[in-house]
Design goal:
By secondary structure, the protein is an alpha+beta fold. The chain has helices spanning 19-32, 75-84, 97-102, and strands at residues 13-15, 59-61, 64-66, 111-117, 126-132, 156-158. A two-stranded antiparallel ribbon has the order 1-6. The protein has a two-stranded antiparallel sheet with strand order 2-3. Strands 4-5 form a two-stranded antiparallel sheet.
Length: 160
């Protein structure tokens, strides 16, 4: 079976929406990307958007465990999270993401940064993210994207 590679991104955003509304929006976006909600749990997926943290929210509800339990166990989650929010504290551990990443056993979880040119040359579509060559991982997101209503609708905005 060929090795499957995944690109991973972590995004931070601010929103006035409640966590369940954000989950519904992420699922809507996944559907637009062709993800079937009724697929088996570990089936390949075209898009997988997850909430890693939602501020200091703690949740153990079915389908909404926050913070995401494997955040501190997976290099492809913790590394990008520490890159964008090194001072953000894990709500259960009380530790900063940058400190958790500094202590992480990276040799056991090799990743490489791959440059992607996804834009039309305007710079907005370019970026880099970790690729996990072990077949682990999927596109992780602490956030969603444009909801199609325009960038000034105030619902979901990138953290500045």
């Amino acid at each position: 079976m060929p090795l499957r590679l995944y690109t991973v991104r972590v995004a931070a955003f601010e929103t006035t929406r409640g966590v369940h509304e954000v989950v519904a929006e992420l699922q809507r976006i996944e559907g637009l990307c062709g993800r079937a909600r009724d697929a088996p749990k570990w089936a390949p997926r075209s898009m997988d958007l997850d909430i890693l943290l939602y501020g200091a929210t703690l949740s153990d509800q079915p389908g909404l465990v926050l913070p995401r339990p494997d955040l501190v166990k997976r290099a492809y989650m913790l590394g990008p999270m520490a890159d964008i929010a090194p001072g953000e504290r894990h709500p259960m551990l009380g530790r900063k993401m940058g400190d958790l990443w500094a202590e992480f056993a990276r040799d056991a979880h090799p990743m490489e940064v791959v440059r992607l040119d996804l834009g039309a040359g305007d710079g907005r579509g370019q970026g880099a993210g970790p690729v996990d060559g072990h077949g682990h991982g999927h596109a992780e997101g602490a956030g969603a994207g444009d909801d199609g209503e325009g960038a000034d609708d105030g619902d979901i905005a990138p953290r500045r």
